[in-house]
């Protein structure tokens, strides 16, 4: 699944297009609270781990559970994140990781995650992203996340702006694929909420 910066870029671009505010952008990164939380990624991302160790994601379960809140920006942003991850798994992950033999998977995943750091720098510049400033966090009723975890998530996102692990060039992923992915997520989300 994409990096925080990828989700932030997508959320920020759509917030500008749709005239949504910071609640939408915060929602678009919110499922990633699990890094500093004791909440399992399977829970925050509405995922189920398969027997082969890979995951399936179910954005519609979030939509069904929070349907009465989907007119609120934070919840729409959260839904966007899950849709983006579903598209990521079906495109980028399927292309670059699924076909890799188990003997090479660890090395390939290392390149994959190193590329996230390189892509952070590229996307920050390409989308003219700025550090995210949130003064107060409202009490969102998403039971899959702990409210206090959101401030740690924002701190992690802002730390991505000084990404010192970035390589000079991508090792595995292609920037064109990432740009296509971001555009596809935006098109799909606009069609879904349209």
Detailed description of the structure:
This protein has 194 residues and is mainly alpha-helical. The protein has one domain. It has eight helices and two strands, in the order αααββααααα. A two-stranded antiparallel ribbon has the order 1-2.
Largest sheet: 2 strands, antiparallel
**Strand arrangement, largest sheet?**
1-2
Give the N-terminus to C-terminus distance in angstroms. Answer: 25 Å
Strand content: under 5%
Mean pLDDT: 92
Helix content: 55-70%
Structural class: mainly alpha
Number of DSSP strand runs: 2
The count of domains is 1
Uncertain segments are: none
Radius of gyration: 16 Å
Order of helices and strands: HHHEEHHHHH
Q: What would the principal axes of the Cα set say about the shape?
A: globular
Count of alpha and pi helical runs: 8
What can be said about this structure in brief?
The chain is mainly alpha-helical and 194 residues long.
Characteristic key phrases:
194 residues, mainly alpha, 8 helices, 58% helix, two-stranded antiparallel ribbon
Write the layout of secondary structure elements.
Elements: H1 4-18, H2 22-29, H3 41-44, E1 47-49, E2 55-57, H4 59-65, H5 73-96, H6 102-126, H7 149-159, H8 175-193
Antiparallel strand pairs: 1-2
Helix pairs in contact: 1-2, 1-6, 1-8, 2-5, 5-8
């Amino acid at each position: 699944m994409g990096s925080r910066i990828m989700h932030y870029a997508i959320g920020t671009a759509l917030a500008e297009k749709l005239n949504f505010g910071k609640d939408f952008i915060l929602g678009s990164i919110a499922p990633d609270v699990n890094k500093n939380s004791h909440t399992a990624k399977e829970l925050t991302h509405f995922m189920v781990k398969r027997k082969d160790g890979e995951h399936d994601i179910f954005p519609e379960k979030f939509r069904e559970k929070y349907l009465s809140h989907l007119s609120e920006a934070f919840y729409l942003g959260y839904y966007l994140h899950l849709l983006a991850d579903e598209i990521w798994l079906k495109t980028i992950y399927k292309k670059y990781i699924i076909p890799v033999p188990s003997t090479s998977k660890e090395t390939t995943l290392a390149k994959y995650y190193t590329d996230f750091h390189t892509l952070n720098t590229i996307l920050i510049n390409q989308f003219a992203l700025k550090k995210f400033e949130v003064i107060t966090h409202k009490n969102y009723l998403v039971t899959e996340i702990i409210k206090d975890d959101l401030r740690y998530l924002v701190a992690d996102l802002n730390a991505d702006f000084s990404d010192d692990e970035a390589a000079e060039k991508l090792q595995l992923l292609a920037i064109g694929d990432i740009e296509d992915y971001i555009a596809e997520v935006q098109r799909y989300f606009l069609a879904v909420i349209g």
